[in-house]
Design a protein that fits this description.
Elements lengths: L1 E6 L5 E7 L2 E8 L5 H16 L8 E5 L5 H18 L3 E4 L1 H7 L5 E8 L4 E10 L2 E12 H7 L4 E4 L13 E2 L15 E3 L13 H9 L1
Parallel strand pairs: 1-4, 4-5, 6-9, 9-10
Antiparallel strand pairs: 1-2, 2-3, 5-11, 6-7, 7-8
Helix pairs in contact: 1-2
């Protein structure tokens, strides 16, 4: 089983090729550059590094959000296109779960993505070897509120992104989507025609439009 995995949820970008759940090759970046300019190129490069042809790929796995509206949409769009072009299954995984498993941390973990103005995208997992329990499903919430239910958890945060929340202690993490296949139950089979990102909240433009109606 050869999988192509994509995460463009935020500033960081992660592209990987796995064979039977184990990483063959991956490219991870953590700098500001438009993913639409780099994703297709990185896919070609990671396939070349792994000595895998597109026709060898058995499935696509894409991070479905939450995160940057534009970032999530780019990854999902490319994943849908490849799934239909190659006629192979498309699976999705929460962008927060990608963070939760990227360093191999076990125990109670709380991956966070800063959502500005004191809010976060957050989830709570208990990670064990090859298994996990979702204690709090991904949600958009004020960080002060989320903190009350996650006091004993290890917070995971990519501090290369803008951090606006008041947080004292956390573990710095960058997404490595190559790691998610250790937890098959986290993957959701999608219909490539119907699959839409999991933004968890409406965009500011949509909110402004609603306010003006």
């Amino acid at each position: 089983m050869i999988s192509l995995l994509l995460d463009t949820s935020n500033q960081a970008l992660s592209v990987a090729v796995n064979r039977n759940g184990k990483m063959l090759a991956e490219i991870n970046t953590n700098y500001k550059k438009t993913h639409s300019e780099t994703l297709v190129d990185y896919i070609e490069k990671v396939l070349a590094i792994a000595a895998v042809k597109k026709t060898d790929i058995d499935r696509i796995i894409a991070a479905r959000g939450p995160g940057s509206y534009t970032g999530v949409r780019i990854g999902v769009t490319v994943a849908k296109m490849l799934s239909k072009q190659l006629d192979i299954p498309l699976y999705s995984v929460s962008s927060l779960f990608v963070l939760a498993v990227s360093k191999g941390t076990e125990g109670k973990t709380a991956p966070l993505i800063d959502a500005r103005r004191g809010y976060v995208y957050g989830a709570l997992y208990n990670i064990e070897k090859g298994h996990y329990t979702e204690l709090t499903a991904p949600l958009y919430v004020e960080f002060k509120t989320f903190l009350q239910s996650a006091k004993e958890a290890e917070f995971l945060l990519n501090d290369e992104e803008k951090v606006s929340i008041d947080i004292d202690k956390y573990t710095e993490i960058s997404p490595r989507i190559s790691q998610v296949e250790r937890f098959e139950q986290a993957l959701k089979l999608e219909d490539a025609d119907q699959f839409i990102p999991d933004y968890l909240r409406i965009s500011e433009a949509e909110r402004n439009w609603q306010d003006n109606q």
